[in-house]
Design a protein that fits this description.
PP2C; 4-stranded antiparallel beta sheet; PPM-type_phosphatase-like_dom; 5 helices; 3-stranded antiparallel beta sheet; PPM-type-like_dom_sf; about 200 residues
Length: about 200
C-alpha cells in the first residue's frame, strides 16, 4: 500500500471515529430526535467528504455540479438490506420510505429509539483538488429537497467565481431564500467553501 492510500485510510478512520463518538455523546444527553451531518476536511490538496443521512456535498467543476456524497435513505437497496440484516424493517408511509415507519433517513447522529438500525457511521470519499474544482456547497436537506445540485451551483457561481471579492455569505443567503421561496419549512443550513486556495 502506498503512502497516500495509507494516509487516506487513516483519515477515513479518524472521521468515522469522530462521527461515532459524537453520536455517543449526543445520546448521553437523552435528547429526543437526531441530526444528519456532512463534513469536509481539506488536507494536503485532498478533499475528504463525509456524510451520515441526507445532508449533501456538491462541488462545482467549471460550473458543472458534481454530488460528492450519496444521501442515506431507507429506500436504497444496500441500506435497506443492512437494516433488515439487523432485524429492523423499512416500509413506505405516504410515499416516503422510513425506518420502522418513522425516520426517512437510514443514518444519523442521535435518534436513540432507532439506534439499533440507524447508524452514525459516515460514508467517506477522498478527492484530489484540481484547477477545475471551484467551490463546494455543503447543505442540509432543507436546501436539497427544493433546489437541485446544478441550480445550487448556478446560483453560487456568479457570486464566487471570477470576481475579486467572492460573496460567500450572499451566495448562501440566496440559496436559503430560494429554497424558502419554494416552500421549504425545514431547517436550511448552507455553507460555501472556495477550493482554489487549496490546490497543490
Amino acid at each position: 500500500m502506498n503512502k497516500v492510500a495509507a494516509r487516506n485510510r487513516g483519515i477515513k478512520e479518524a472521521v468515522k471515529e469522530g462521527y461515532l463518538s459524537t453520536d455517543v455523546e449526543f445520546l448521553k444527553e437523552n435528547v429526543r430526535g437526531g441530526t444528519c451531518c456532512v463534513t469536509a476536511l481539506i488536507h494536503e490538496g485532498s478533499l475528504i467528504v463525509s456524510n451520515a443521512g441526507d445532508c449533501r456535498a456538491v462541488m462545482s467543476k467549471r460550473g458543472v455540479a458534481k454530488a460528492l456524497t450519496v444521501d442515506h435513505r431507507p429506500s436504497q437497496k444496500d441500506e435497506r438490506k443492512r437494516i433488515e440484516n439487523l432485524g429492523g424493517y423499512v416500509d413506505c408511509c405516504h410515499g416516503v420510505w422510513r425506518v420502522h415507519g418513522s425516520l426517512a433517513v437510514s443514518r444519523a447522529i442521535g435518534d436513540g429509539h432507532l439506534k439499533e438500525w440507524v447508524t452514525a457511521e459516515p460514508t467517506t470519499e477522498v478527492f484530489r483538488i484540481t484547477e477545475e474544482c471551484e467551490f463546494l456547497v455543503l447543505a442540509s436537506d432543507g436546501l436539497w429537497d427544493k433546489v437541485s445540485n446544478q441550480e445550487a451551483v448556478d446560483v453560487v457561481h456568479p457570486l464566487c467565481v471570477g470576481i475579486d471579492k467572492p460573496e460567500l455569505f450572499s451566495a448562501c443567503k440566496k440559496l436559503v431564500d430560494l429554497s424558502h421561496s419554494r416552500g421549504s419549512s425545514d431547517d436550511i443550513s448552507v455553507m460555501v467553501i472556495l477550493l482554489s486556495h487549496f490546490i497543490q
